[in-house]
Amino acid sequence: MLRPIAIWILAILLGMLFVLVGFSKLAGPSGTVWAARLSDWGYPAASRYAIGGIETLAGLGLLVPSIRRSAAIILIIMMTGALVTHLMHAEFIRLLPPLILGGLAYVLYAWQPRNIRRRHVHGEP
Questions:
Q1: What does the pLDDT look like over 45-65, one tens digit per residue?
Q2: Is 118 part of a structural domain of the chain?
Q3: Does residue 123 lie within any of the structural domains?
Q4: Which of 3, 18, 41, 98 has the greatest number of C-beta atoms within 10 Å?
């Protein structure tokens, strides 16, 4: 009984965080800051739209049980990319957020039952 509650709490908190961070790359003054950061790392400034869009959509996907595992995998991949970027630029203090967020996304991936879609479609408990 406690595990489903923990899954939902983690999915909601992590989902909200990724939606906020993803949206910050898409709009407002922080979008400009992200464009500059990405350029400094050698990525096109406009890649902030793809990264922000993926983070936002995957964050929302964490809230849908039937696609939660897929959304978690996408976020794990995104956080792996962030981790590699920070390692390549010797930004060691910036390794913590992608490690923690990627780890939490992995927890959601591992905890989410694999057959949840089948159970909902067939009306099983």
A1: 999 999 999 999 999 999 999
A2: no
A3: no
A4: 18
